[in-house]
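note to self: dont lose this again. the chain is below, predicted strucutre after it. 250 aa total, dont forget to put it in the shared folder this time
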Amino acid sequence: MKYKLLCLSAVLSAASAVFAIEYEPIPSPGKITATASSNYPNDGIAPGHALNFASGGGLDANGWHSTDYRQMWLTAAGALNNGVWYCVDLGEKVTLGAIKMWQYNQANAPGRDIREMDIYISEEDSPLPPNGRAAPFYSVSDGWSLHVPGHVFPNALTPSPSYPGEPLLEFPPVRARWVGLYIKSNHNYANPADIVGIAKIQFHAVKDTILLHPVTDIGSRTATLNAFMTSDAMPDSVTAFWGDADGYEL
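---
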């Protein structure tokens, strides 16, 4: 399991508490489906290949990805001239907190990995689909919101048959049914408007929030803390209580 420590400031005082967030991967394949602005013709390098975590899908037991391009997604040639998007339906609303990415890892084809992307989120059951606009998910009226702007993978990938993927990309947890990636550039500096792809992408939901350290007593014995919850309601805050013996409950 993956944990992330959060220090949450109290609204009613300078008191604070330390929480850990536990993530769990959303099963894929399953309810998750993907579409994209294009895919490379003839070779069947479809968007869904980046969601295939089944045996034989490109990942071994260690979580290392092969260099077999037939187990990845790749755009059509010249796609970055027209804007590239990759859109995922998670199948249900979840509290999303992180993404694990395996960059495009084809043997003898460096530079096709993502350099910069925006991450858009929608909680709608049926937001308006992406289109050919410069930023295909940009409009709030379409049901989308920009959640992670301008994330950069600074290092170009050297394709390897034992590629473990990129470090987990964590961001403020958010309720989401849909995730949209607007891919702005690749690492192919010789032909940056050419082509880009993804070997695998895995979405991590917040499984639990664990209070590691109680809030300091501020006299009123309560403090309202900003927090992210895993329930459908996901209230804007929770109230922590504690007693004279440093006991607490949520």
